[in-house]
Design brief:
Distance between the termini: 44 Å
Helix content: 10-25%
Order of helices and strands: HEEHEEEE
Shape: globular
Number of strands: 6
Mean pLDDT: 87
Structural class: alpha+beta
Strand order of the largest sheet: 2-1-6-5-4-3
Strand content: 35-45%
Radius of gyration: 16 Å
Largest sheet: 6 strands, mixed
Low-confidence stretches: 128-134
């Protein structure tokens, strides 16, 4: 589920950003480099202001969030790292995480999730000299 979600999210972000807001709901929160943005409409407006992008995912991890033992998970934590290129600029390294919640409007569909919470942060890759002993 996590890999399919990330592939779909990045494809839409890179090619059809005007439709990205469908991943969010009015209670969704996006924290963009430390700045919180709340609600699908406001998130849509904020993301639309960005230049064209091209995502490259380098790592992806996921785990279920289990609220009650004995029941199936209702949420999923997805984390990823990668590079994002804005227009013709050099790619920038990033880390992001999502908490995906089951979509209550599609209760019969076990694969229907929405983004409850997302954090996105640019990061500087570690400098090689940090790992070399002298």
């Amino acid at each position: 589920q996590a890999k399919a979600f990330m592939e779909l999210y990045c494809t839409i972000a890179d090619t059809q950003r005007e439709n990205l807001w469908h991943f969010y709901r009015k209670n969704s929160v996006l924290v963009w480099n430390g700045t919180p943005i709340t609600g699908a409409a406001v998130i849509k407006d904020s993301l639309q202001k960005l230049p064209g992008t091209k995502h490259q995912i380098d790592s992806l991890d996921a785990q279920p969030i289990i609220r009650n033992l004995g029941t199936k998970h209702t949420a999923l934590l997805v984390t990823s790292t990668g590079r994002i290129k804005y227009g013709v600029k050099k790619p920038v390294h990033f880390h992001q995480s999502f908490v995906l919640e089951r979509n209550p409007d599609k209760a019969d569909d076990d694969s229907a999730f929405y983004i409850l919470s997302q954090t996105f942060r640019y990061r500087n890759p570690p400098h090689r000299s940090q790992f070399v002993r002298r």
